[in-house]
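User: What would this chain look like folded?
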Amino acid sequence: MTSRPKSFGAAITGLGLVTPAGIGVKENWDRVQSGVSCATADENLRDSPVSFSCRIPGFAPRELLTGSSSWQLERFVQLALVASRQALEDAGWDPVAWDGARVGVVLGNSLGGVGTFERQHSTLLEGGPRKVSPLLIPRLMVNMVAGYVAIDIGATGPSLVTATACASGTTAVGTARELLRSRACDVVLAGGTESALTPLVIAGLGKMGALSRRGDDPSTASRPFDACRDGFVAAEGAGVLVLERPEDARARGAHVRAVVRGFGSATDAYHATSPSPEGHGIEQALRAALADAGMTAADVDHVNAHGTGTPLNDVTEGRMFHRVLGDRPLVTSTKGVTGHALAAAGAIEAAYTALAIEHRSVPPTANLTRLDPEVEIDVVSGVARDAVIDVAVSTSLGFGGHNAALVLAAS
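Assistant: Here's the prediction, encoded as C-alpha cells.
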C-alpha cells in the first residue's frame, strides 16, 4: 500500500466578507444558507438594457473606515480594506503587535477603478486635461488595492495583485499559500475584491451575452445549473482570508476554521471568453489541486462550484465534476444568492467553503427548480443540507481561459 505525499496546509484563522449577502461573516453565512437571492433593480443602471445587479446593501465607507481618509478611495479598495480589517479581527491579530516584514498581502482584482476611469474620461472630454484629477492613476491601477491594504495594516512583506479574471481570488489564495510554504511570510492576507457595476461594464457584459435578462423578476435571475438559466447577475464584493502555518496558529491559540490543503491552476488555451467545451482546463486544475493535497476524488465531500448560471459554464463544469468526482459530493453554487462578483468571487466562495466545513452544512443553490438534464451531479437546492465535510473543493474559471481550484479540509 503506497502512502500519500505529505501536503502543505495553510490554516485559515480569519475571514472577512463584504458582499451583497451582507457585511460580516455571520450575515453572509445566514444569507447564503437561506438560499434567497440578493439581486434587485439597480438605480445606477436604470438606463441600461440590464438594469439589475447584486450590490452590497448599506455599505457606508465613512462609518466603516473611521479613523482614516480611506473613505476617499475607490470602492473596490474600500471593500478590501473593510474585509481585511474584519479578517484580522476574526483571526485575533493586532497589526501593532506583529513583525510587518513577515506579513504579506495577495489580493485578486481584474477591473480596478473602472468607475473613476469612466468619470475622468468624461471630464477630459468636457473640460480638457487640466480638469483631470491627479488621483486618476492611483485610483485606477489594480495593484493599488494590495498597496493600500498593506499601508493600512503595516504589512511590509510581499504584496501583489493576481489578475486571472474571475479566477483571481482563488489564484490569490493559492499564491498566498506558496508564500507560507516557502517561509517568505508567516501571515498572509489573501482574497479578492471587485466593484465594477458601472453602465459601461454592464453594457459590455450584456453585449457579450453573459448576463441574465430576467429584469421582470431579478430575484429569480441568478439560477446556476437550472435548465432555464440564461446568464449571470453581476455583483460586487470582497473576501479576505488570513492564512498562517498550522503550527504557528496553534502556538498562539488561534481558532482554525479550515485548512487550505491543495491548489491547482491551468489554462484552456481555447478561446478568449468561452470555456473549453469539455472542461479540460478546469479538470486539469482540479486534478492538480487534489494531487497537491495528496488526496483523491474519493476524498471529496463537497464542492462550491464556479456555477455562474451561464448556459456554457454550468454544463461544462457539471460534466467535469461527474467525470472526475462522480455524483457523491454535495455541490452548490452560492452565486445563486450573491451573483457573480468577478475577481472577488473565488475568495468569497473559498470563505463559504471553509464555513461549510466548519458548520457541517452545504448552502442551497438559489433558484434551482429544475436541474439541467446534462448535469449529472448532486446539486443542493431548496434548503441547506447537513453533512460531515472533511474535504471540500472550490473552483473558479475566468476569461482568458484561466482555471483555478482549491482543496480545503477540516482542521
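Residues 75-91 form the longest helix (17 residues). If you want, I can go into more detail on any region.
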